[in-house]
Design brief:
heterodimer; A: mainly alpha; 7 helices; B: 11 helices; globular
């Protein structure tokens, strides 16, 4: 095939694509509402971004509490204690709120560490710490 | 046609001998199932989010399979010098290009069927609804879109020297079209003449792969199926670009020296 003929064929195909593109473009807008002007994350993930919201919420909460946050081991222990204390609900609550999620210090090192542990009192109003602090 | 189908058969066999597809499928299944086990905020619409994640993974996996499968076809034949006995047989270079394309497209189609069956079973078991027509349309449009990608990569594999170079360039071109091409018309309208006309023409010249993205159709039950005329037009649109890239690829390949550098 001569190169001039090949170029004409290529241009014809390109023109065909162009024409079909102009016909198809207005139709595609009625298929779904995935707008091209949306953000990159919305184009990729859509509404499933909400599934990652919890993770980022927890990360933000940790930052607001200056890192004073229950680890997965603390959370597991809390869940266990909660299960065992079902029959005596409310008895230990005020004590736990005073001590935080770490529980009572087990030795003098824990007691010393508790004095320098970061608290969230600077972030929240006085008197509401127990309600907002983790644990 | 027998020659082309024989060449295509070799490519399909290559797909199930390699581990790419299995790894991507297991990864997609594990990620989707692990996301499905978690209940966020007791949200009743969580199934839609799960479907969105699963379809995104399917899109990524299918793109990776299409790119890597198509990119290594001709360079591998040249490096292993198997292209010489192949062309010594009554096989033309055009048939090689066509056979490789058909093989890659069918192989990707097989992989896509497996992905969509998994997706259909997963969403059907959660929603207890089976909108088969929408699944078929979403599958078909994605498969047709992948045909354009495969043709583009095959064209790249006769232009660029190494397969890695080809994969990287094609990956960024495809990603750029998928994410940015839809904005070009908006940008064009803000430009003064003649840049506006030029940019708007360029907008219609490039293959719009993002038009084939109808994930919302199967994620949300509110959308009606795509009209069949539109499906046909989209198929024709893809066919034109597939022909364009394959023809351009053949033009380069027929004059290309195959001696190893």
């Amino acid at each position: 095939m001569k190169s001039s003929r090949a170029i004409v064929l290529l241009l014809l195909l390109l023109a065909g694509g162009f024409t079909l593109g102009t016909t198809l473009q207005p139709r595609t807008t009625h298929w779904t509402d995935r707008e091209p002007s949306d953000s990159l994350m919305k184009v990729l993930l859509g509404d499933s971004r909400r599934m990652f919201a919890n993770h980022f919420f927890v990360k933000a909460d940790i930052t607001f509490h200056s890192g004073y946050y229950p680890s997965i081991f603390d959370q597991a222990r809390q869940a266990e204690e909660k299960d065992s204390d079902v029959a005596h609900a409310g008895e230990q609550e005020s004590k736990q709120l005073e001590q935080g999620f770490l529980g009572p210090p087990t030795d003098w090192i824990d007691r010393f560490a508790a004095t320098s542990a970061p608290r969230c009192t600077r972030i929240f109003k006085a008197g509401t710490r127990a309600r907002f602090c983790p644990g | 046609m027998n020659t082309v189908s024989a060449l295509a058969g070799v490519v399909i066999k290559e797909l199930y001998r390699r581990k790419d597809f299995y790894v991507l499928f297991v990864l997609t299944a594990v990620l989707t199932l692990s996301m499905g086990m978690i209940n966020f905020f007791n949200d009743p619409k969580i199934v839609e989010d799960l479907k969105e994640i699963c379809l995104l993974l399917i899109w990524i996996s299918a793109l990776v399979i299409a790119l890597t499968t198509a990119a290594r076809q001709i360079p591998a034949e040249r490096e292993n010098r198997t292209v010489f006995p192949l062309l010594a047989k009554p096989v033309t270079r055009g048939q090689v290009i066509l056979g490789k394309f058909l093989g890659c497209w069918l192989a990707v189609g097989v992989a896509l069927v497996v992905f969509y069956v998994f997706f259909g079973v997963l969403s059907g078991s959660r929603e207890h609804a089976w909108p088969v027509l929408k699944y078929v349309q979403a599958f078909w449009l994605q498969w047709v879109m992948l045909a354009v990608v495969i043709a583009l990569v095959l064209f790249g594999s006769v232009v660029f020297t190494s397969a890695a170079e080809n994969v990287t360039i094609c990956f960024f071109v495809v990603l750029g079209i998928l994410l940015l091409a839809g904005h070009l018309n908006t940008v064009a309208l803000q430009q003064p003449e003649p840049a506006r006309t030029l940019l708007y023409s360029f907008y219609f010249v490039i293959p719009h792969l993002e038009w084939f993205d109808v994930r919302d159709l199967v994620i949300y039950n509110t959308w009606a199926p795509v009209p069949w005329v539109d499906c046909l037009l989209a198929t024709l649109y893809a066919a034109v670009y597939v022909t364009l890239f394959l023809f351009a690829g053949w033009l380069v390949f027929r004059r290309k020296s195959l001696t190893a550098s």
